[in-house]
Each structure stands twice: as C-alpha cells, then as structure tokens.
Amino acid sequence: MENGVGLFVGININETHSMVSFLDVTAKEPQNILFSDKKTTQDNPIPLSSWGQISKSGDVAQTETIVNFVATLIEYAKRLTKATKINKVCIAVEDFRIDTLDAIAAIMMRLQYSREQWCVISHEESFAYYAYNQKRELYASGVMLLDYKADGIYAYLMSNGKYGDTELIMENRYNISGDNFKSVYEKNAGLETVMDDIMNWLSIPLQEHIISSIYLTGEGFNVESFPEKLTRFFCNRRKVFAGQNLFVKGGGFGAYEESVIGTKENVILSCSNRVTTGIEVDICERGVAKRLRVIKPGTNWYTARRRLDFILEDVNVIRVILRPCNSNKESYEEIDISSIPYRKGKMTRIELDIKFNSDSRCTITVKDKGFGDFVKSSGKIVSKDIEL
Predict the structure, then answer these.
(1) Is 302 a member of any domain?
(2) DSSP H helices in the chain
(3) Phi, psi (5° rounding) for residue 362?
(4) b/e burial code for range 123-132 (CB count within 10 A of at least 16 → b)
C-alpha cells in the first residue's frame, strides 16, 4: 500500500466526527480505515468549531487532546498499511474558516510534519477531487453534490469548460432549507416529507445543465432507502451515488494530486476556496522584460501565500496584473512605494508578500529589505488590500 515515495492519507474532519482513508496507488482508489471498534468514524474529542479558539487561547490540556487525536488518526493509516513514511496528508474540513485552518497548521507543526507534507481543503474541493477521479463518463457533462446538513441541503454543481488549452471546472451553488428539512435531518420524518420540495428546487438547474452524475451525502440522506419517486427523478439519464465517505476519499485523491506534479497540470479548479484570478508582475531578468506569474489560478487560498525578493530600479509604483482564469481581460492594481528610498547601484531590495484572507481578497505587502551589510533597511512597509 505504501509506494516508493510514501503514504497518501486523506482525513475528513466534520464538526463531531472524523474519518480516514489512504490511497491505494496501484488501484488508484482511496480505502477507508476501519478503527478498532470496526467503525469508519471516530468521535472528535472536541467539536471542530472550537479548535480555532482553543489554539488562540493556548489552553495546553485541550490542545494536547486535539493534537493526540489527529496523531492517532494518522497512526491508524500507517499501522494498517505498515507504512514507514508519510508523503502527504490531505485534511478536508467542514468548517473552512481561517481560525480553524490556523489551528490545523499548528497541529501539523506540533506533529513535525513539514509544510510540504500536508494540506487542508474544503468539502467542495474534496468533492471535486473525488468526482473528477472517477471514470470520465461519470463527470464528462458535469457533476452535482447534494449535501444534507442540519440547516438544509446544499447543492454544488460543477461543470466543465475550456479556456484555450486549459480545462476549467466551475462551480454553481444552491441551497434549500426549512422546518420540514430539519425534521427529516433529525429523523422525525422521512424523505418523502421533502421529496416534492427537492424536485421543484432542482428542476431548474437540472434543466439548465447536463449532469452526468449526482452524489448524495450528509446525515439527512443517511437512510435505508429513498422514495421511489425521488429515485426516478435523480436517476433520469444520469448516475446517482449515495454514501457518507465521499469527502474522506476525496482527501485521499487530494493528497496524491497535491503531491504529484502533472496529474492535473492543465486543469483549473474554479470552486469555493480556490483563487480564480491569477496575479502577475512585470519584471526584467538579465535585461529581458518578462511577465512573472506569482499566484496561479485554481490554488487554494489558504496555501496561496507567496514571498519574493526583488531588486528595484528607480520606480515609485509597482503594477500588479490580475488575470481571471476564464478571460483574456486584465485589470491592474498599483502599489505606491514612493516612501521606500531608492538607492543607486541596484541596492534597493524589497520583499513582496502576498497573503490571502479568502478566495477573493488578498493583502500585498512591500517591505524594504536593505542590502545585506552594505545598506540597512529603512523599515518602510507598504500594504494594500486587493479584491479579486
């Protein structure tokens, strides 16, 4: 199960429980981990939504509990596969907020995993990894996920497009909720209670888009059987799959694809929590004008941070080029750096730091770095927030 470069592990962390998978590279299929109680899930010792606050507060006891829990999840995968090395751990989380993500980063650091050995993705991204690693006929015209949560059903429709030589995977989102949906989720009523509402709700997007497959997940769809009328509606000229392990298997695929260069080289995943606008700057390298792509579209916003050093000519403004992934149109943002002193002889060195706060907003910071022992930094720092 462990290949020559190590094990690929997928973890899905919901609010109350977690699951683990590993990618069987030979079969190219993630396998779920069965824990010692023969279940595929483990209860979280602390709800996921509290992890961020615990990490910020520095509560030692609760932090240790969470760290040990994540270590145990990974250890199960290593023990089952007899792996000695982890290549990548891909963690899919239901709560994709920056405090939760920072807490996970701190956990992986505590467990001594380098930044290259782990990544964190949202459920939407995990679904895309899963769906687009199936047979082509199951995603050729697009796919839809229906996730039945406590506050209603969320639909994620991912369709295929082309932009030049690049394949785009684009997302549309829909949701429906109400007291009847809550009753079904809480098992106080059956799916037939909301069957007509679901069909009416989905009739328009399913008429507007051709869908190869529909995937059903979430506790509300965790039932022994579906009403016949609803089943016929879902299965009308499309494949339908129901299960509760989609996100953890998507994490297994994600661990592989985030590690192996070239698996989806010409594909841009344009869904929630992915940066859909590339960021570029004009540079001069050895006397030749070039365009440098700093942020690639389709990158997860939490891992998109870049820091680069440049030697400046006599300029007061840095022009940043924004390129949406589905358009040739460029837009520009200018950063006024006139407060940073210019030094002759190519002695003006700056650091350009791009940090994302969401999939549509970033902060670009320019810092005077001085020039080694020759010139001290002025301490000048310029920042600008940019909406993509």
Answers:
(1) yes
(2) 51-57, 60-81, 98-110, 123-131, 179-185, 195-208, 228-234, 246-257
(3) -140, 165
(4) bbbbbbbbbb
Query: Residues 184, 87: one domain?
Result: no
Q: How far apart are CA 66 and CA 230, in angstroms?
A: 41
Please choose, from the candidates 218, 231, 230, the residue with its C-alpha nearest in 3D space to the C-alpha of residue 185: 218
Chosen domain end from 70, 101, 122: 122
Count of the separate structural domains present in the chain: 3
Q: Choose the final residue of a domain: 62, 91, 122.
A: 122
CATH no. for residue 346?
2.60.34.10
Residue 346 pLDDT class (50, 70, 90 cuts)? confident
pLDDT level of residue 265 (50, 70, 90 thresholds): low
Q: Is residue 157 within 8 Å of 205, Cβ to Cβ?
A: yes
User: 347 with 297, same domain?
Assistant: yes
Is residue 58 packed enough to be buried (19+ CB in 10 Å), middle (13-18) or exposed (0-12)? exposed
- Of 22-26, 247-251, 280-284, 331-335, the one with minimum mean pLDDT is 22-26
By CB neighbour count within 10 A (0-12 exposed, 13-18 middle, 19+ buried), where does 206 fall? buried
pLDDT above 60 (res 41): yes
Instruction: Write b or e for each residue in 211-242: b if 16 or more Cβ atoms lie within 10 A of its Cβ, otherwise e.
Output: bbbbbbbbbbbeeeebbeebeebbeeebbbbb
Whether residues 155 and 65 fall in one domain: no
